[in-house]
Amino acid sequence: MSLKPKPVTVFGVPTDVGAGTRGASMGPEALRVAGLVEALASRGVEVADRGDVAGPRNPWMPPVEGYRHLDEVVAWNRAVMEMSAAELAAGRMPVMLGGDHCLAMGSITAVARHCRAQGKRLRVLWLDAHADFNTSAITPSGNVHGMPVACLCGLGPDALVNLGGQGPMISPADVRQIGIRSVDPEEKRLVREHGLDIYDMRYIDEVGMKQVMEEALAGIDADTHLHVSFDVDVLDPSIAPGTGTRVPGGLDYREAQLMMEMIADAGGADSLDVVEVNPALDKRNRTARLAVDLVESLFGKSTLMRD
């Protein structure tokens, strides 16, 4: 399958409102400094950087009724949803630069609505160390960046579940999670109960990335919209230190490259999130530069002699 030659819109979302550590708000600029827009343009992609969407400041408060900064999280996600929806309607591919991973609620809500309107099926690849399937009942922190998949699947506060109209926006059957290695005990129970399709690090170790990607991409066709939600903490901290929720034992460089190359081989993504880059915790913008390298592979740059 060849890559879809769709024009791309990049936009930043400079907030860490859903996170437990400050600094992801600087992620969009770190990715720009690392040359993300130029890297896509050099691949022949027609790319426009729309700048950053606007939203409220991060108040950095403790949880209220199980959620930290819920009003601010809703406001930022609404801004993401509106920007993503406008670009999808214009026939462009939205690339959201986060910010923390709670922002995927806005981008995926827009994509899910777009798929319904177009009569397309949705496949979400969730590349992450965490399942992000927490609810306020099972997480003491109240950090909403641990809840986006649950909210999208209908488990969460009304303001997020129904962000784009009557939720849930997606079904667990739409999601494939890759690289998972940190799931809370009660979250494990919820994940099993809802039948989430998880390719954890043990499974990747056992069968290899090639088989994992073949399984995760199985059934994708011309009527499928593929959304890739790329949290840089899916990568091992030894190669990607600049993120707020580091978990040892993540993807190495070759596994991550193969994952992105196989997505490109399958036709590429139709929308993309790049989130949780935290330059305050990084070394000389190393994590953002690696993220740009991997996004290039997602857009068809092969590290092998196959071009």
From TrEMBL:
| Cofactor, how bound (note) | Binds 2 manganese ions per subunit.
An example of a Pfam family matching this protein is: Arginase
Answer yes or no on keyword Hydrolase: yes
Alphabetical UniProt keywords: Arginine metabolism, Hydrolase, Manganese, Metal-binding
Q: Name one GO molecular function term.
A: arginase activity
Q: Which CDD domains match?
A: Arginase
Name by which UniProt lists this protein: Arginase
Q: What is the lineage of its organism?
A: Bacteria, Pseudomonadati, Pseudomonadota, Gammaproteobacteria, Lysobacterales
